[in-house]
Write a structure and sequence with these properties.
Elements (H helix, E strand, L loop, with lengths): L12 H30 L3 H19 L4 H22 L1
Helix pairs in contact: 2-3
Length: 91
């Protein structure tokens, strides 16, 4: 099979249960490793991290000061447009 058994397979119920558990544990372990690598690669962009941090701070500030929903939307749109304009200016 594709998990490295080749021609050898479990013979009794204990071997089948152990093999199944090993396959599940190895699958979960691989998923964790891939998730960690994707998280690291996804956080490499310093400018994006700063933008997300700024947006989080903006959202907390608007929540604390009970800003109306329409103004919240306008502020978020402004910050997003500012981010896009900065990227275009850098190119």
């Amino acid at each position: 099979t594709s998990v490295g058994y080749g021609d050898i397979g479990p013979v009794n119920i204990v071997e089948t249960v152990v093999a199944t558990m090993m396959i599940i544990v190895s699958g979960v372990s691989w998923a964790i490793v891939l998730g960690q690598v994707c998280g690291i690669v996804g956080n490499l962009d310093c400018d994006e991290q700063n933008f997300r941090r700024t947006m989080d701070e903006l959202n907390f500030m608007m929540q604390d000061r009970v800003i109306p929903a329409d103004l919240r939307h306008r502020l978020r749109s402004f910050f997003l447009a500012n981010k896009i304009a900065r990227r275009r200016a850098q190119q």
